[in-house]
Specification:
The complex is a heterodimer of chains A (100) and B (166). Chain A has 100 residues and is mainly beta. Chain A has 2 helices and 7 strands. In chain A, strands 1-2-7-3-4-5-6 form a 7-stranded antiparallel β-sheet. The N and C termini of chain A lie far apart (39 Å). Chain B has 166 residues and is mainly α. The chains are: A mainly beta (100), B mainly alpha (166). At the A-B interface, strand 1, strand 2 and strand 4 of A face helix 1 and strand 1 of B. Strand 1 of chain A pairs parallel with strand 1 of chain B, so a sheet runs across the interface.
Chain lengths: 100, 166
């Protein structure tokens, strides 16, 4: 029902950064209530396991966006079908940010 | 603390990776290419100065070697500038500038020095160029959350370079 994933890539930075961890819930309770702004994990045939933010939740699929102009997201690969969504982030454990 | 615990566990059991894809190409950015190119500029300046005091001055061999040193100096100064521009333009984001407001000025000065070392054989300008690129490297690695150390390059001209302390 819950699993831990580690984030690679900077598409959701600065909020989610390379090396951060997240606890992901896969139960229907969470997945049936997805809304814009939620962060989800999904499986994509070309891009593998993705973590993205929901920009629009439709009955059969969700559109996702990264936080950056150059993010690879639904603008590139279209919506993610609901069956391909493997979890919703319920807890984000951040790596200590280095300040100067 | 919880992060540290997870990191320790991750080293043992390796959690699943979820990729926050960005910019389809490789995403490999490293200022070391610019640093080595800047170092090469100083090396060429040293070789040029050495040749100037040699016995072959005025001979064909002299002109051949000098031309080659100058060409390599030109090439590597431009290479360093190119690498800086790529990291600055493609990798650096507004949130990085918020944390490191000196970055634009630092790049601007480094690019100007990159031009100066092409226009002249001024060794001090070469040293300043290497140092400017080093400072850029320090900020770059700070953005990546990677500590750095300074060490002398193990080849002539043995100047200090900034390396990630991995």
């Amino acid at each position: 029902m819950f699993r831990i994933i580690r984030i690679s890539g900077e598409s959701l930075s600065p909020e989610y950064q390379e090396g951060d961890f997240a606890v992901v819930a896969a139960s229907p309770f969470f997945l049936s209530r997805l809304k814009a702004g939620d962060v989800i994990v999904g499986a994509h045939p070309d891009y593998g396991t993705l973590i993205k933010r929901v920009s629009q939740a439709l009955p059969g699929a969700v559109f996702v966006r990264g936080s950056r102009a150059e993010s690879v997201d639904s603008r590139t690969f279209g919506p993610i079908p609901r069956p391909a969504i493997t979890g919703k982030v319920v807890w984000h454990i951040r790596k200590a940010r280095r300040e100067r | 603390m919880f992060y540290k615990l997870l990191e320790t566990l991750d080293n043992k059991i390796r959690f699943e990776r979820a990729r926050a894809h960005c910019d389809i190409p490789c995403g490999i950015y490293d200022p070391i290419t610019a640093q080595i190119a800047a170092l090469t500029v100083v090396r060429m300046m040293d070789l040029m100065a050495g040749l100037e005091g040699g016995e072959d001055k005025g001979k064909t061999e002299y002109h051949n070697s000098m031309s080659r040193y100058i060409a390599v100096k030109e090439e590597h100064a431009e290479k360093a500038k190119h690498e800086l521009r790529v990291i600055w333009g493609d990798y650096i984001k507004p949130e990085h500038i918020e944390k490191h407001p000196e970055l634009h000025d630092l790049v601007f000065k480094a690019l100007k020095l990159g031009s100066k070392v092409r226009q002249t054989a001024d060794r001090q300008a070469g040293l300043d160029f290497v140092e400017a690129v080093n400072k850029f490297a320090e900020v770059f690695w700070a953005i990546k959350g990677v500590a750095t150390r300074r060490a002398k390059a193990p080849y002539a001209p043995n100047l200090e370079l900034v390396y990630p302390a991995l």
